[in-house]
Amino acid sequence: MYEDKYSALISSLKALGSAAAAFSGGVDSTLLLYAAREALGDRAAAVTALTPAFPAEEAEEAAALCKRLGVRQLTVSFGIGDIPRFAENPPDRCYHCKKALFAGLKAAALREGFMQLAEGSNTDDAGDYRPGARAVAELGVISPLKAAGLSKAEVRQLSKQLGLPTWDKPSYACLATRIPYGDRITEERLLTVGKAEQLLHRLGFLRSRVRLHGQTARIEIMPGQFEEIMQPEVRESIVAGLKALGLAYVSLDLTGYRTGSMNEIL
Question: Pick from 222, 216, 204: which is nearest to 178 by CA?
C-alpha cells in the first residue's frame, strides 16, 4: 500500500516542475529529497538551514547525504539573533523559528530558480504540539509526504526498501527542544546539550535526549536500557562527562525516551 503512496508522491513532485527540499538529513527529509531527485532530476535541490540548534555532526551528515544522492545543496546560516523571539523561548518558539528559517530557505531557493519549497512532515506529525506547522502553511511551503498520506512507519519502510541509510535513524529534533519554555536559549546551552547527547550516543544510547533544567540534566533513554545505564562504569562515565560540561546534577527520567516531552506541561 505504501508503494502506491510513493507513486503518488513522485507524481505530485513531477507536477511542480522544480523544487527545493528543506533538508536536515533526517529520515523524512532524506526520503523527500530522494523522491524529488527521482521525479525532477537536476531541477531538484536540497536547502539546509545552519543554526546553533543544528549540531555540526548533523550538518556534516546532511552534506554527505547530498553528495551520495547526487543532489545540489544550498545552505543558509542563521544566528540566534536572526530568529525573532527564539532566545526568549516562548511556547510558540517553534512558530517564530520555522517562520524565519523557512522564509530564508524559500528565498534562497527562489534566487536559484526553484519555484517551490517542500518540507518533510508526515501524517504522524499532526499528533503533537507543533506550532511550526502554522508557519509552514503561512509561507506556502508544501508537505508532499503528508499530502501523499505517508506515516512515519511507512517513510521508514520505503527508505529501507530504497536503500537509504537513514531508514532506522533515530528521530531528531532541534536542540532548543531540550530547554524548558521560558528558560533563555543561548549558544552555550545548545552546545552543552549537543555535547551531552554525543556522549550518550558514543556509549550506545542512540535514542536519547538530555533535557536541561537549570543546572540539572534530565536524561531520557529507552526503558530497556535502564539496567545498562546503571552499570557503575557507565553511570560514572556519564556523570563525570556531564559535570565536566558544567552541570551540577544528573538525573534519569523513569518515563523513558519520548519526543516532545517539554510539551507535556502545556
Answer: 216
